[in-house]
# Entry
Amino acid sequence: MARWEPDARGRLEKAAMDLFIEQGYERTTVGDIAARADLTERTFFRYFADKREVLFSGSKDLEKMILDHIAAAPRDLPALDVLAAAYAAAGTGIEDRRAIEYVRARYALVTRHADLQERELIKLAGLTAATVGGLTARGVAAPTAALAAELGMAVFKLGFERWATSRTPRDFAGHVRAALADLRALAAAPPPSRRPRRA
Amino acid sequence: MARWEPDARGRLEKAAMDLFIEQGYERTTVGDIAARADLTERTFFRYFADKREVLFSGSKDLEKMILDHIAAAPRDLPALDVLAAAYAAAGTGIEDRRAIEYVRARYALVTRHADLQERELIKLAGLTAATVGGLTARGVAAPTAALAAELGMAVFKLGFERWATSRTPRDFAGHVRAALADLRALAAAPPPSRRPRRA
DNA sequence: ACGAGTGATGTCGTAAGCTGACATCAGCCC
DNA sequence: GGGCTGATGTCAGCTTACGACATCACTCGT
# Structure
């Protein structure tokens, strides 16, 4: 018999999520979480740098998936299409009932607490930075890669938001593609050009 | 004679900035800041919700300036141009020596500390949300406004970054306009279209 | 001019987040 | 068997953040 129950990290994550839903994020202390997972507060902080981080273990996997998709994309695909395809593909993992429930619960938590939103935003910024790396590795020039990554992130955010707030989320990939199409339409549309631009 | 030295908030902001630069953000406690401003820790927390917030008093002004510019823009200007112009105009306030020094010092601090970066990101997200409001007030449809605001923010970020990292920052507006042009070029470029897209 | 009220600040106490230093001890390796 | 390893526990302490209450110069109404 093992000396300790296995998967301390997983137990902490589950305990945290359960408690956050049961009694709210703020009213749940790290001590509560640790107790529910049969561990001590100190151990919690060995696994997670801070209280918020317990909700973000997935971001590393997401980043890896997206980078893999970027690396594997056809070489002649324009950067924006590469990114949209990568996001769409990475999103297919969240389409079963279980996952959707989790993602929505988590989404609700994050949008309700500025704390968590901050962490989410910096994770996405990290993802953007990683994306720049992935694109430059494909030979995209650095400034272009930076811009493309920003636009890709906008597409991802909007696609996700529309997907998450639709009554019964499905077809994540479709939402992402639609967001990209909208982006192209908006960016491409120089004015109904009533008068010529100077120069 | 007044009962207290005037401008407690301003004194706290200056003390904080000075100490952060002198001895680093993390090694400076709220107590240190308050002491340097001849106030108590408790008073600090009456002016600022938390330690980070002391660096972000400017974000409200920035938001107001940008919203004003959006509201005042010619009615037939496309959303993206409205935003780029608003950012460019709002940025003209930071072009004198004093301001540049402050902005750069602050930028260095923020990029070096994840804590502060998180706060910065959520402030920008708030600015994005406000921008959506400003656009819809002009009659832009909500989904378009959301997308335009995201793209506008990308332009602002990139423009600012390029401006801030240039050896001697000048012509903020030019950087913003250039970022927008780059965005249009990148988004407009559907592939060198070797093969037709399906459908 | 005087007493009540106001508002910025101070004092005190405390919960929660987070960290360093050291202790424990089952299982593994030699 | 004995020592090493690594996950966990224990303990002490600092910092952040906030509620409750005290203080007291200034103001305003009468």
In short: Chain B is about 70% helix and 0% strand.
